[in-house]
Amino acid sequence: IQIENFLSNPLSAIMYSNAIPVLMTGDLITKKYKSAVIAYYINALFQNQQLEEFRKKNTYLILDELTTICSTEDRESNPAKIAIINVVARGRMNRIGMIYSTQYYNKIPSEIKAAKMNYLFTFFQPYKGAITELTKDFNLDSSAYKEIKTLKKFECLGITNEKFVCYKNGEKWETDSTIRGYIIPPVSRHKKA
Known about the structure:
about 190 residues; alpha/beta; about 30% helix
C-alpha cells in the first residue's frame, strides 16, 4: 500500500487514517504461525510510530484474550510476546497505549505485568491464585480480595494506581479507592443475562 511516499502494510494505512488498529486473533489462535503474524503487526505498529508521518499521532494496541497470544505457559520462544513486551516497555515514549483483556490474570507474563498499568477492571475470578496475584500487584487489602470473590455477572471492580474521576447526580469527585460497578453487557448472540 502506498500512502504518499510511504510504503507499508494494511495496519499502517489504518493508523495513518487515524483509526485504532485492533488485532482480531480468533482465526489465528489455532494456527502454528499465529505468533509470527501477530508479532509482525505489532512490530509494524511500533515502527510506524517512529516515522515522521506518524510523529503527532497517538494510537492504542487493543488485544482481546492476551493470554491466548502469550502467557506464562508458553513453552517455546514466542515472537508475539517479545513484541508485546517491547510495546509495554517502550510504547509510551512512542505514543502507543495498550489495552488488553484476559480471563486469566495469573497467566499474564511477568514482563507485561511489570509495566505500569494505570487501570484494571476485574470481574469474578474463580482462581484464588489469580486474586492473590492481582491484590498483591495493586497493593490491595483483604477486603478487595473478598469483594472480587463475590462479584456477580456483569459486576466488576475498578482498580487504579492513579485516580478515578466519578460522576453521580451532577456531582464530580476523584478517588483512588476501588470502585464496584456494573458493565453494560454487549449486544451479541450470547446467552441473555
